[in-house]
Amino acid sequence: SQQGEEDPQALSIQEGENATMNCSYKTSINNLQWYRQNSGRGLVHLILIRSNEREKHSGRLRVTLDTSKKSSSLLITASRAADTASYFCATSPGNTGKLIFGQGTTLQVKP
Amino acid sequence: NAGVTQTPKFRVLKTGQSMTLLCAQDMNHEYMYWYRQDPGMGLRLIHYSVGEGTTAKGEVPDGYNVSRLKKQNFLLGLESAAPSQTSVYFCASSLSGTSGRAKYEQYFGPGTRLTVT
């Protein structure tokens, strides 16, 4: 069964607005990652946050992690049409390298 | 570097036929993975390998076999295809922790779209 549940399942915003996606998971983790998937393509790694970190930034991306609530959020600021994609959280529960993916949030950014 | 490549990109099989999907990576990664992605769902791990000659089952291994004879290649086999195996298959690879670098970041191939009729 899948570890992560993402919310919302779909999000539609205007260019320039911020987009926030949330991920909840069930078991303890080593780290949590976010990936982007453009239509018809493979996944691309965006950012990794370790279990002992609370917030991480990368360009227009901001990720938070709350291990007490077993949840994470991904914020994309000043969105662009090119940000239109599906976004997945993935948790690494142990030391095996395996990832467990959520169902994803489909983001549409309208120009 | 080509990164992770997958062959073929598309395939249509009849029920009961067999086929092999090939994944190749040129990044000298130790770990390799096979996932399937179905509509409205995230990726589910089929099998994975932590090194040449070793394989292990993931979340949904039934109906699939794998082999890792060479470090750079990871093969996924379907011995007797079923319509339930209609899916998009992704291969990924990652470095191991002993390298001290991006241990868990996975690099994905472009996918193979398989239809079983």
Task: Estimate the strand proportion of chain B.
Answer: over 45%
Average pLDDT of chain B, to the nearest integer? 92
Radius of gyration from the alpha-carbon trace of chain B, in angstroms: 14 Å
Most extensive interface between two protein chains, with residue counts = A-B, 27 and 29 residues
Distance between the termini of chain B: 36 Å
N to C succession of SSEs of chain B: EEEEEEEEEEE
**Given the C-alpha coordinates, what overall shape of chain A results?**
globular
**Residues in helices of chain B, as a percent range:** under 10%
N/C terminus separation of chain A: 37 Å
Overall mean confidence score, pLDDT of chain A: 92
Estimated helix fraction of chain A: under 10%
Radius of gyration of chain A: 13 Å
- Counting helices, strands and paired strands, the structural category of chain B is mainly beta
Report the count of strand segments of chain B: 11
The number of E-state strands of chain A comes to 11
Largest sheet of chain A: 6 strands, mixed
Order of helices and strands of chain A: EEEEEEEEEEE
Tally the helices of chain A: what do you get?
A: 0
Low-confidence stretches of chain A: none
In percent, how much strand structure appears in the residues of chain A? over 45%
Quickly count the helices of chain B: 0
